[in-house]
Amino acid sequence: MVLGREAFDRDLGQLEAQVVLLSALVESSVLISLLALKGRDLELASRVIADDDLIDDKRFEIEMACAEILRREAPIAGDLRRILTILQLAGELERIGDYAEGIAKITHLLSDKPLPKEIIDIPRMGDRAISMLKHSLEAFLTRDPDKAEATAMGVGPHDHAVDAMYANIQSELMELMRQDPENVETGTYLMWAAHNVERIADRATNIAERVVFQATGKLVRVGGDDDDAESPT
Protein backbone atom coordinates (compact mmCIF):
# COMPACT_ATOMS: atom_id res chain seq x y z
CA MET A 1 0.00 0.00 0.00
CA VAL A 2 2.87 2.32 0.86
CA LEU A 3 4.52 1.51 -2.42
CA GLY A 4 1.26 2.33 -4.21
CA ARG A 5 1.07 5.69 -2.45
CA GLU A 6 4.69 6.44 -3.29
CA ALA A 7 4.05 5.66 -6.97
CA PHE A 8 0.94 7.85 -6.95
CA ASP A 9 2.83 10.75 -5.39
CA ARG A 10 5.63 10.29 -7.89
CA ASP A 11 3.15 10.44 -10.79
CA LEU A 12 1.58 13.61 -9.39
CA GLY A 13 5.01 15.14 -8.90
CA GLN A 14 5.84 14.42 -12.53
CA LEU A 15 2.57 16.04 -13.61
CA GLU A 16 3.36 19.15 -11.58
CA ALA A 17 6.80 19.27 -13.18
CA GLN A 18 5.10 19.23 -16.59
CA VAL A 19 2.93 22.17 -15.51
CA VAL A 20 6.08 24.06 -14.50
CA LEU A 21 7.58 23.32 -17.92
CA LEU A 22 4.41 24.49 -19.63
CA SER A 23 4.40 27.68 -17.57
CA ALA A 24 8.02 28.35 -18.58
CA LEU A 25 7.12 27.93 -22.26
CA VAL A 26 4.14 30.26 -21.85
CA GLU A 27 6.05 32.89 -19.89
CA SER A 28 8.76 32.92 -22.55
CA SER A 29 6.14 33.23 -25.28
CA VAL A 30 4.49 36.21 -23.58
CA LEU A 31 7.82 37.94 -22.98
CA ILE A 32 9.00 37.44 -26.57
CA SER A 33 5.64 38.58 -27.98
CA LEU A 34 5.91 41.83 -26.02
CA LEU A 35 9.51 42.35 -27.17
CA ALA A 36 8.39 41.72 -30.74
CA LEU A 37 5.55 44.23 -30.39
CA LYS A 38 7.72 46.92 -28.84
CA GLY A 39 10.41 46.56 -31.50
CA ARG A 40 8.02 45.54 -34.27
CA ASP A 41 10.30 42.57 -34.78
CA LEU A 42 8.59 40.24 -37.24
CA GLU A 43 11.15 37.48 -36.78
CA LEU A 44 10.48 37.31 -33.04
CA ALA A 45 6.74 37.48 -33.68
CA SER A 46 6.95 34.55 -36.10
CA ARG A 47 8.84 32.56 -33.48
CA VAL A 48 6.01 33.04 -30.97
CA ILE A 49 3.42 31.95 -33.54
CA ALA A 50 5.40 28.81 -34.39
CA ASP A 51 6.03 27.92 -30.75
CA ASP A 52 2.32 28.00 -29.94
CA ASP A 53 2.05 24.45 -31.28
CA LEU A 54 4.53 23.31 -28.61
CA ILE A 55 2.32 24.85 -25.92
CA ASP A 56 -0.79 23.18 -27.34
CA ASP A 57 0.96 19.81 -27.46
CA LYS A 58 2.19 20.11 -23.88
CA ARG A 59 -1.31 20.93 -22.63
CA PHE A 60 -2.69 17.86 -24.41
CA GLU A 61 0.06 15.69 -22.92
CA ILE A 62 -0.79 16.90 -19.41
CA GLU A 63 -4.51 16.34 -19.94
CA MET A 64 -3.96 12.79 -21.15
CA ALA A 65 -1.72 12.02 -18.16
CA CYS A 66 -4.34 13.44 -15.77
CA ALA A 67 -7.07 11.37 -17.41
CA GLU A 68 -4.98 8.23 -17.01
CA ILE A 69 -4.38 8.87 -13.30
CA LEU A 70 -8.08 9.58 -12.74
CA ARG A 71 -8.98 6.33 -14.51
CA ARG A 72 -6.40 4.26 -12.69
CA GLU A 73 -6.48 5.68 -9.16
CA ALA A 74 -10.01 7.13 -8.73
CA PRO A 75 -8.62 9.72 -6.27
CA ILE A 76 -10.73 11.59 -3.73
CA ALA A 77 -10.52 14.69 -1.51
CA GLY A 78 -7.17 16.50 -1.65
CA ASP A 79 -5.70 14.20 -4.29
CA LEU A 80 -8.66 14.87 -6.57
CA ARG A 81 -8.34 18.64 -6.06
CA ARG A 82 -4.66 18.38 -6.89
CA ILE A 83 -5.31 16.62 -10.20
CA LEU A 84 -8.20 18.89 -11.14
CA THR A 85 -6.01 21.92 -10.43
CA ILE A 86 -3.30 20.56 -12.71
CA LEU A 87 -5.90 20.08 -15.45
CA GLN A 88 -7.28 23.58 -15.00
CA LEU A 89 -3.85 25.22 -14.86
CA ALA A 90 -2.85 23.50 -18.10
CA GLY A 91 -5.93 24.99 -19.76
CA GLU A 92 -5.32 28.47 -18.38
CA LEU A 93 -1.68 28.40 -19.43
CA GLU A 94 -2.58 27.27 -22.94
CA ARG A 95 -4.98 30.20 -23.24
CA ILE A 96 -2.25 32.59 -22.11
CA GLY A 97 -0.12 31.15 -24.89
CA ASP A 98 -2.94 31.93 -27.31
CA TYR A 99 -2.95 35.56 -26.16
CA ALA A 100 0.80 35.76 -26.70
CA GLU A 101 0.30 34.37 -30.20
CA GLY A 102 -2.37 37.02 -30.76
CA ILE A 103 0.04 39.78 -29.77
CA ALA A 104 2.60 38.34 -32.20
CA LYS A 105 0.03 38.36 -35.00
CA ILE A 106 -0.80 41.99 -34.20
CA THR A 107 2.92 42.78 -34.61
CA HIS A 108 2.67 41.43 -38.15
CA LEU A 109 -0.42 43.55 -38.78
CA LEU A 110 1.37 46.67 -37.59
CA SER A 111 4.42 45.87 -39.72
CA ASP A 112 6.00 49.18 -40.71
CA LYS A 113 2.87 51.31 -40.35
CA PRO A 114 3.30 54.69 -38.60
CA LEU A 115 2.17 54.50 -34.98
CA PRO A 116 0.10 57.08 -33.09
CA LYS A 117 2.51 56.76 -30.13
CA GLU A 118 5.56 54.83 -29.02
CA ILE A 119 4.83 51.36 -27.66
CA ILE A 120 5.81 51.72 -24.01
CA ASP A 121 2.72 51.28 -21.84
CA ILE A 122 1.65 47.89 -23.21
CA PRO A 123 5.01 46.21 -22.42
CA ARG A 124 4.89 47.73 -18.92
CA MET A 125 1.44 46.29 -18.49
CA GLY A 126 2.80 42.99 -19.77
CA ASP A 127 5.60 43.01 -17.19
CA ARG A 128 2.97 43.25 -14.45
CA ALA A 129 0.97 40.40 -15.98
CA ILE A 130 4.08 38.19 -16.21
CA SER A 131 4.85 38.92 -12.56
CA MET A 132 1.30 37.84 -11.66
CA LEU A 133 1.80 34.58 -13.54
CA LYS A 134 5.05 33.91 -11.71
CA HIS A 135 3.45 34.52 -8.31
CA SER A 136 0.51 32.27 -9.16
CA LEU A 137 2.86 29.42 -10.10
CA GLU A 138 4.94 30.06 -6.99
CA ALA A 139 1.78 29.57 -4.94
CA PHE A 140 1.02 26.38 -6.87
CA LEU A 141 4.37 24.90 -5.88
CA THR A 142 4.03 25.89 -2.22
CA ARG A 143 3.14 22.92 -0.02
CA ASP A 144 2.07 24.92 3.03
CA PRO A 145 -1.67 25.77 2.60
CA ASP A 146 -1.48 29.10 4.47
CA LYS A 147 1.55 30.28 2.51
CA ALA A 148 0.03 29.12 -0.78
CA GLU A 149 -3.16 31.04 -0.03
CA ALA A 150 -1.31 34.19 1.02
CA THR A 151 0.90 34.12 -2.09
CA ALA A 152 -2.06 33.52 -4.40
CA MET A 153 -4.21 36.22 -2.81
CA GLY A 154 -1.36 38.69 -3.32
CA VAL A 155 -2.03 38.50 -7.07
CA GLY A 156 -5.32 40.40 -6.70
CA PRO A 157 -3.97 43.95 -6.25
CA HIS A 158 -1.77 43.50 -9.31
CA ASP A 159 -4.84 42.54 -11.33
CA HIS A 160 -6.49 45.81 -10.33
CA ALA A 161 -3.33 47.67 -11.39
CA VAL A 162 -3.36 45.98 -14.80
CA ASP A 163 -7.03 46.87 -15.25
CA ALA A 164 -6.23 50.52 -14.49
CA MET A 165 -3.32 50.52 -16.94
CA TYR A 166 -5.56 48.98 -19.60
CA ALA A 167 -8.22 51.66 -19.07
CA ASN A 168 -5.59 54.39 -19.41
CA ILE A 169 -4.20 52.89 -22.62
CA GLN A 170 -7.70 52.61 -24.09
CA SER A 171 -8.51 56.20 -23.19
CA GLU A 172 -5.28 57.55 -24.64
CA LEU A 173 -5.58 55.58 -27.88
CA MET A 174 -9.21 56.59 -28.33
CA GLU A 175 -8.23 60.24 -27.96
CA LEU A 176 -5.42 59.86 -30.50
CA MET A 177 -7.84 58.24 -32.95
CA ARG A 178 -10.35 61.02 -32.36
CA GLN A 179 -7.72 63.66 -33.08
CA ASP A 180 -6.54 62.02 -36.30
CA PRO A 181 -8.53 59.38 -38.24
CA GLU A 182 -5.22 58.16 -39.71
CA ASN A 183 -4.55 56.64 -36.30
CA VAL A 184 -7.64 54.46 -36.29
CA GLU A 185 -6.17 51.32 -37.85
CA THR A 186 -2.96 51.15 -35.83
CA GLY A 187 -4.71 52.45 -32.71
CA THR A 188 -7.20 49.60 -32.98
CA TYR A 189 -4.41 47.06 -33.33
CA LEU A 190 -2.71 48.44 -30.22
CA MET A 191 -5.97 48.23 -28.27
CA TRP A 192 -6.26 44.59 -29.31
CA ALA A 193 -2.74 43.98 -28.02
CA ALA A 194 -3.53 45.73 -24.73
CA HIS A 195 -6.68 43.64 -24.41
CA ASN A 196 -4.67 40.45 -24.83
CA VAL A 197 -2.31 41.54 -22.05
CA GLU A 198 -5.28 42.31 -19.81
CA ARG A 199 -6.64 38.83 -20.46
CA ILE A 200 -3.26 37.30 -19.61
CA ALA A 201 -3.51 39.00 -16.21
CA ASP A 202 -7.04 37.67 -15.78
CA ARG A 203 -5.88 34.13 -16.54
CA ALA A 204 -3.07 34.50 -14.02
CA THR A 205 -5.73 35.51 -11.51
CA ASN A 206 -7.77 32.43 -12.42
CA ILE A 207 -4.70 30.30 -11.73
CA ALA A 208 -4.29 31.94 -8.32
CA GLU A 209 -7.91 31.15 -7.47
CA ARG A 210 -7.47 27.52 -8.45
CA VAL A 211 -4.31 27.30 -6.38
CA VAL A 212 -6.19 28.50 -3.29
CA PHE A 213 -8.85 25.87 -4.00
CA GLN A 214 -6.22 23.15 -4.24
CA ALA A 215 -4.47 24.24 -1.04
CA THR A 216 -7.50 24.89 1.15
CA GLY A 217 -10.65 23.62 -0.56
CA LYS A 218 -12.04 27.17 -0.45
CA LEU A 219 -13.59 29.00 -3.42
CA VAL A 220 -12.30 32.56 -3.44
CA ARG A 221 -12.20 35.64 -5.66
CA VAL A 222 -8.60 36.77 -5.94
CA GLY A 223 -9.08 39.57 -8.45
CA GLY A 224 -11.79 42.01 -9.42
CA ASP A 225 -15.19 41.53 -11.00
CA ASP A 226 -14.09 40.19 -14.37
CA ASP A 227 -17.19 38.69 -15.96
CA ASP A 228 -15.11 36.30 -18.04
CA ALA A 229 -13.19 34.85 -15.12
CA GLU A 230 -14.19 31.39 -14.03
CA SER A 231 -14.62 29.97 -10.53
CA PRO A 232 -12.80 26.81 -9.49
CA THR A 233 -14.79 23.60 -9.69
Structure description:
This protein is an all-alpha fold and 233 residues long. The chain has 7 helices and no strands. The longest helix is centred in the first third of the chain and has 38 residues, at 2-39. The two termini are 29 Å apart.
Please provide the ordered H/E string of secondary-structure elements: HHHHHHH
pLDDT average, as an integer? 90
Instruction: Please outline the major beta sheet.
Output: none
The poorly predicted ranges are: 225-233
In DSSP terms, counting alpha (H) and pi (I) runs of 4 or more, how many helices?
A: 7
β content, as a range?
under 5%
Q: Work out the number of β strands.
A: 0
- Portion in helices: over 70%
Overall, the morphology is: elongated
**Structural class, from secondary structure content?**
mainly alpha
CA(first)-CA(last) distance: 29 Å
Using only C-alpha atoms, the radius of gyration works out to 19 Å
Topology (SSEs and partners):
Blueprint: H1 2-39, H2 42-73, H3 77-110, H4 121-141, H5 145-153, H6 155-179, H7 184-216
Helix pairs in contact: 1-2, 1-3, 1-4, 2-3, 3-7, 4-5, 4-6, 4-7, 5-7, 6-7
Short description:
The protein has about 230 residues and is mostly helical. It is built from seven helices and no strands.
Question: Which characteristics define this entry?
Answer:
233 residues; mainly alpha; 7 helices; 0% strand; disordered C terminus
